[in-house]
UniProtKB/TrEMBL annotation:
Biological source species: Antarcticirhabdus aurantiaca
Name assigned to this protein: Peptidoglycan-binding domain-containing protein
Lineage top rank: taxon: Bacteria
Organism lineage: Bacteria, Pseudomonadati, Pseudomonadota, Alphaproteobacteria, Hyphomicrobiales
Length: 232
C-alpha cells in the first residue's frame, strides 16, 4: 500500500518523467530477453556485441607458394608428412626445424629462399647421392610436364626465343605467372597482377635456379622460364 501510494504520488507530481522511465525500463527488459533467450543460437556477447568476428575457413590464410615448395621438398627428404597446403602450421614449422638441425642450419622454422635451395639439394642427395644430379631441378621437372600449346609451337629445337624488351609490364607478369604454374612452382592465376603470392613464387623459383633472389617479376625471370620451356 505504501509503495503504491509513493508511485501514485510520483506519477501525480511529474507524469511525463515517470512514464518515460517506466517505458525505458520495459524496452530494456524486452531487448535483454530477446538477446538472451529468443535467438536461434548462442550469441557470443548477447548484451554488448552486434557483430561476430570472421573465423575458420572464411578467414583462412592465403596459401604461400614458397611454403608449398618447402613442404613438397620436405616430403622428399622425409621430414614432412602432412598436407601440402602452402600454409605455415605446427607440422610445417617442426619439419623445417628438424631439417635445419639435421643439416647444421639454424633451427628457425622459417621458410626462406636459402632454405628452398638447401632442401632442393638435400632432396637430390636423397634420390641420387649427388647434389650435382639435382633430381629436383626445374629443367628436369619440365621434361615430365606437358608444355602449353603456344609454348610448344613457338619453341625452337635448341635456342628459345628472347623476351622482347618492350613487353608491357602486365603481360610480363602474366607470362611469368603462367610459367611458374606450368613449372609447378606455385598454383597461380595468370592475371598480370604481381601480388604477394606471385612475388613469393618468384623468390622460390629464383632460389631454385641459382638466380639473385629479388621476388621481382622482371625479364630475367621470364627468360629463364622460357629457356626451360615453361612458357613462351
Amino acid at each position: 500500500m505504501r509503495l503504491t501510494g509513493s508511485v501514485g504520488a510520483l506519477l501525480a507530481r511529474d507524469p511525463v518523467v515517470t512514464l518515460g522511465i517506466a517505458a525505458f525500463g520495459l524496452f530494456t527488459a524486452m531487448v535483454a530477453t530477446n538477446a538472451i533467450t529468443a535467438q536461434p543460437g548462442r550469441h557470443p556477447q548477447p548484451m554488448f556485441s552486434t557483430r561476430t568476428t570472421i573465423s575458420g575457413d572464411a578467414a583462412a590464410v592465403q596459401a604461400d607458394p614458397m611454403i608449398r615448395t618447402v613442404q613438397e621438398g620436405l616430403i622428399k627428404t622425409g621430414h614432412y608428412r602432412a598436407a601440402v597446403d602452402g600454409r605455415t602450421g605446427p607440422a610445417t614449422v617442426d619439419a623445417i626445424k628438424a631439417f635445419q638441425k639435421e643439416w647444421g642450419l639454424e633451427p628457425t622454422g622459417r621458410a626462406t629462399p636459402a632454405l628452398v635451395v638447401a632442401i632442393d639439394n638435400a632432396a637430390a642427395v636423397a634420390v641420387t647421392g649427388s647434389v650435382e644430379a639435382r633430381a629436383a631441378s626445374l629443367e628436369d621437372r619440365m621434361g615430365a610436364v606437358p608444355m602449353p600449346e603456344p609454348a610448344r609451337a613457338a619453341a625452337p629445337t635448341q635456342t628459345r626465343a628472347s623476351v622482347p624488351a618492350d613487353l608491357p609490364e602486365k603481360e610480363l607478369v602474366r607470362r611469368i605467372q603462367a610459367g611458374l604454374a606450368n613449372a609447378q612452382v606455385a598454383e597461380l592465376t595468370a592475371d598480370g597482377i604481381a601480388g604477394p603470392a606471385t612475388r613469393r613464387a618468384i623468390e622460390a623459383f629464383q632460389a631454385l635456379e641459382g638466380m639473385d633472389v629479388t621476388g621481382k617479376p622482371d625479364r630475367s625471370v621470364l627468360q629463364r622460364l622460357v629457356d626451360i620451356g615453361a612458357t613462351n
